[in-house]
Amino acid sequence: MRTLIHNVMIFDGTPQPPRPGAVLIDEDSIAQVFGGGADFADNAVDHRIDGGGATLMPGMVEGHAHLTWGSSVEKIYHQFELPHEELKVAAWRNARVLLDSGFTSAYSAGALGDGIETELAAAIEAGETPGPRLIPSTIERSPEGDDTGNIFNGKGPDAMRGFVAHCADTGVKVVKLMISGEDALKPDTHNLIYYTEAEMAAAEEATRAAGLLLSAHVYSSEAIELALRHGVRVLYHCSYADAGAIHAMVAAKDGIFYAPAVGVLVATLEANPPPHINMSQMKSSAQEALPLLNALVPTLKNHGVRIVIGGDYGFPFNPNGTNARDLIHFVKHFGYTPAEALSAATLNGGALMDMKLGQVREGFLADLLLIDGDPTQDINIMMDRGKIRMIMKGGALHKGAELAQA
Ligand SMILES: [Zn+2]
User: Fold this and answer.
1) Mean pLDDT confidence for 265-288
2) Which of 146, 124, 201, 211 has the alpha carbon at shortest distance from 175?
3) How many angstroms is it from 205 CA to the middle of ligand 1?
């Protein structure tokens, strides 16, 4: 099936101003991109979509997705861990909410259950439930156990190898390691390092052999450098990176991605919880980390490190479906232009997915949004689901089917 989307301003994923044009979709991919004034009238097509001058852009990529963190703009949960049946309902809902919010891809940063994201990814892939393309993960691994050999939290290289083998068996693609502690949960733990060199070497070797990808929660410079020595592909947070860690990240830039996960920090500082919920520790750690990121992110960006959006959405005060707020934070806190923020969400996100995604470009998958207005002029409109006229994933219309004329 061939669809022509015409009368649009194209934001192609690179941080350039939108240009007038048209796009021909053949099955699941972009067959041709026409500049303004090009003659596409004699192309035989099944459907035409008149964009009415709206902005056509790549679908966004959430680079730090937690679909099993229950809360979304459609339902808030006040407990963090949900019973299994409700967890499934929430995760399936969150996938649809993310897609409805303009995210056609999601790279998981960990799940609150084992096996649930592989099941969800398969259901999405089979068309049984709407959602973004999902690179699934499992429980974020933190070695707080002892030497019992427990693969989920035991110490030692063998337990790590067992975990990676389990991930491979269940069809997980991303192995997420908590290398640093987390101040928001346990005070003064950001400088702790939870893995030894031998455990990280085992993780590197086992994931490489199984074709899996490593992601890591890291704060201190030592944790960042440990991760980089052992093939970690995606680094989250990194707030306490010093000059040496920055240098190491820049040296590794062609093989890594970085997501500062700023959304949760801003939302934590803004949150106004009821009296029985104590967020003082979370707030003080966010208060400390945010200014550090404000300095770090522009430095890494200027050195060409590939930075993606994604900010621990899924808390009641930072629900799934508000993920596009990261774009606004990138502009406000990190000095990005709106077009650069959109490029982080699309071009860089597509590279993170390691698929032909994130660009309006011939041969790329037809994951596309049609936005009322120009988000390169006003980034705030990306937060308004009502401004998203069309959501296309792999050439199929999730939203805006009525726009397609025979
Ligand atoms: Zn996270």
Assistant:
1) 94
2) 211
3) 24
Between the CA of 402 and the centroid of ligand 1 the distance, in Å, is: 37
Stronger pLDDT, 37 or 317, i.e. the higher one: 317
Tell me the CATH number of domain 2-58+357-405, given options 3.30.70.1250, 2.30.40.10, 1.10.1670.10, 3.40.1190.20. 2.30.40.10
List, for residues 192-216, the tens digit of each pLDDT value. Answer: 999 999 999 999 999 999 999 999 9
Quote the ligand 1 centre to 175 CA distance (angstroms).
13
Instruction: Tell me, in angstroms, the distance from the centre of ligand 1 to residue 134's CA.
Output: 15
Residue 9, helix vs strand vs coil: strand
Q: Residue 217 Cα, ligand 1 centroid: separation in angstroms?
A: 8
Cα 176 to averaged position of ligand 1 atoms, centre (Å): 9
Residue 206 CA to ligand 1 centre (angstroms):
23
Ligand 1 mean position to 178 CA, how many Å? 10
CA dist 19 and 9 (Å) reads 5
Across the range 360-381, mean pLDDT stands at 98
Question: What separation in Å is there between the alpha carbon of 34 and the centre of ligand 1?
Answer: 39
Other beta carbons less than 10 A from residue 97's beta carbon: 25
pLDDT digits (tens, 9 = 90+) for 42-79: 678 999 999 999 999 999 999 999 999 999 999 999 88
The DSSP annotation for 144-189 comes to -S-TT--TTT--SHHHHHHHHHHHHHHT--EEEEE-B--TTTSTT-
The architecture of the domain spanning 60-323 is Alpha-Beta Barrel (3.20)
Give the dihedral sign, CA 122/125/130/136. positive
The Å distance, Cα 374 to ligand 1 centre, comes to 30
**pTM tops 0.85:** yes
Instruction: Taking residues 80-87, report their average pLDDT.
Output: 91
The per-residue pLDDT for 383 is: 97
> Higher pLDDT residue, 273 or 229?
229
Output the CA 310–ligand 1 centroid distance in Å.
9
CA–centroid distance, 378 to ligand 1, in Å, is: 28
Q: Could you give the residue ranges of the DSSP H alpha helices within 171-307?
A: 197-210, 221-229, 243-251, 262-270, 280-302
